[in-house]
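Recall from the previous lesson that a structure prediction takes nothing but the amino acid sequence as input. Here we apply that procedure to Pyridoxal-dependent decarboxylase from Saccharopolyspora oryzae. The sequence below is the only information supplied.
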Amino acid sequence: MHPRLATDRDELPQLLAAVQQHAADVLSQFSERKVVPAAPLPEPAPLSARGAGLQAALEEFAARWEPALSTSAGPRYLGFVTGGVTPAALAGDWMTSTWDQNSFTSLDAAGQHLEREAIGWLRSLFGLSDQQRGTFVSGATMSNTVGLAVAREWLGEQQGVSPAEHGAGALGGVRVLSGAAHSSAAKGLSVLGLGRRSLVQVPPQPGREAVDLAALERALAEDEGPCIVIANAGTVNTVDFDDLRAIAGLRERYPFWLHVDAAFGAFAALSPEHAHLVDGLDLADSICIDLHKWLNVPYDSAVQFTRRPDLQTRVFQNAAAYLGPLGDTPDTAHLTPENSRRLRAIPAWFTLRAYGRDGYREITERCIACARTVGDAVDSTPGLQLLAPVRLNVVCFTLADDPTAERLSALTEQIVDEAFLTPTVLDGVPALRAAFSNWQTTATDAHRVVSALRAAVHEL
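The prediction returns the following tokens.
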């Protein structure tokens, strides 16, 4: 055995204790650390032939790379929609690497059964029925892509062909209708051979990102055959929600597959005040829900649900002598593009078992309250303009005067030590988004963000 490996093996308990202490020290600094530090990126170093051992690697990582890393897992990283890692999820992630399971076959089935238990808990968390069958994937992009792949196979079923066997060209022209589809949907359509141009934007309601139902029905009436509808349970800019129950009801007159992108909006189900926003979610044919957002498990983790696992296995089945049969509960190797994958279910299992429905309801409602605090402050601050109501956990706003991308960038640069926001464009207006989904974020953090924004806009 290589001498460095042998030494690390013999000293593993002490080394893991050192890593644990270092990680605890890092986590304890998150609330006060600069959110996006200005430290320069280190120059690339050559690979050592001899190696340095775990302890030296930890020390070098801490010295060279940690100063440049953002505090994206901290309470005031409000860009994109980024969660953190709960204590239980962190422990689960450590166990994931410790056990290093590639649970893709029933020949070694314990990991798959653990995943199914975690899927059942998630189904319950979001109020879904047992008819929704779920699988872990890497993120919302892959969840949307898997859902659309199943939808593609459903389109083939309506025409008596199988795109999985004969290719997407067997379908002819395909239309995918949506009011405000996330960019990952277009990416998925490209990967699936349906093409980005198959995505047709249906006009939204005035002043909203939610689809206009009358316009959607007109678009459905124009189609000569079945199509796909992508509905939103929480748009990325303003967290707007389509009327899922009403859209599902249109299937009585028009044939279409209903895919719902509920990447983070599904968590509205946990708040009694907001649960009505996801009414009808269970009626979807496929659903995307991201977990490294509001569930606060480590990247990368998401779940996809569908009512047609038979079509899912038709797309993703992997024929090999060492894999189990499809059956009523197919191995995960037959359900997603991946064969090899880490057992992402363990961090989700840990955090759900540790904090339960009540814990996640508290996290969700606290994040919503923080978003409202910032939204109310923006609305009352001269020089700032709120662009949409704070419906859930995102504040979308801009400068009241001359809201150019350059001026907004200058604003964010002034507050980057205190908070990180991401740019966007809403109805042609350059804007900023503050998204609250971190388990550590409190009212104190919201007020710190408000103070930083007010000071920055005063200096512009």
